[in-house]
Design a protein that fits this description.
By secondary structure, the protein is α+β, with helices and mostly antiparallel strands. The chain contains ten helices and four strands, in the order βαβαββαααααααα. The longest helix has about 30 residues, at about 90-120.
Length: about 220
């Protein structure tokens, strides 16, 4: 099968999600690494994504953007292991969690809290501590609801790994690594255990930020 190419910024949760799916499927892939903000370059918008977002998938002569569409395509192109439940209720739960990630986790937690706490310092970007503090209640609301939905299940959509786990874990994997994230997770032993369970998968090690930068270094700007 033709190799898959993902265009995106190493470390982005939305870039990592399809890489995780490709790893879980045992499919060959490579990352076309973009620099921070590289998706906003006019050439990127003209060539790859008209809305200047990441990631973009190339599979042979087929190009696709939007993370959810990419995940569905990967799950269909290689049927084993299946990453979508067949039970209608579990499938609905998977889709619900994916919607929560896109609508609430990404803006409330990853953008407003995780980025300033973990990513911005790495790139020397100033951090507004007051804005981070103000974002905590909304971020906590999303975390509390995810913990409630998880309940006593091993995964977000029941007993088996699904696309819901793969799109969520890149957003939550680093929460124990900074004070506000650890505090939000602390009341939820089930969610903390889920984070550690999914982080232990080989696909997570294969898509680690530092490893991606080593294997697929960002091209120097011209």
């Amino acid at each position: 099968m033709t190799d898959f190419v993902i265009h995106g910024i190493p470390g982005s949760p939305y870039v990592r999600a399809p890489l995780l799916a490709l790893e879980e499927k045992g499919l060959s892939w490579r990352l076309d690494s973009l620099p921070m903000g590289g998706n906003r370059a006019p050439e990127y918008k003209a060539r790859l994504h008209p809305f200047a977002k990441i990631p973009v998938l190339d599979h042979g002569d087929f190009r696709l953007y939007e993370t959810r569409a990419i995940l569905d395509y990967i799950d269909q192109i290689a049927l084993e292991p299946a990453l979508t439940p067949t039970d209608p209720k579990l499938r609905a739960r998977m889709n619900q969690v994916i919607g929560i990630v896109d609508s609430y986790v990404a803006p409330r937690l990853s953008g407003a809290v995780t980025f300033p706490r973990l990513i911005a310092p790495h790139f020397g970007i100033p951090v507004d501590d007051a804005a981070v503090a103000a974002a905590i209640p909304a971020a906590r609301e999303a975390i509390d609801e995810l913990a409630r939905l998880l309940g006593d299940h091993d995964h977000m959509a029941g007993p088996a790994l699904s696309l819901a786990d793969l799109i969520l874990i890149p957003h939550l994997a680093f929460m124990p690594d900074f004070a506000e994230g650890a505090a939000m997770i602390a009341p939820h032993a089930n969610l903390a255990a889920w984070i550690e369970r999914v982080k232990a998968r080989p696909s997570m090690a294969a898509t680690d930020w530092s490893l991606l930068l080593e294997r697929f270094p960002v091209a120097e700007a011209a």
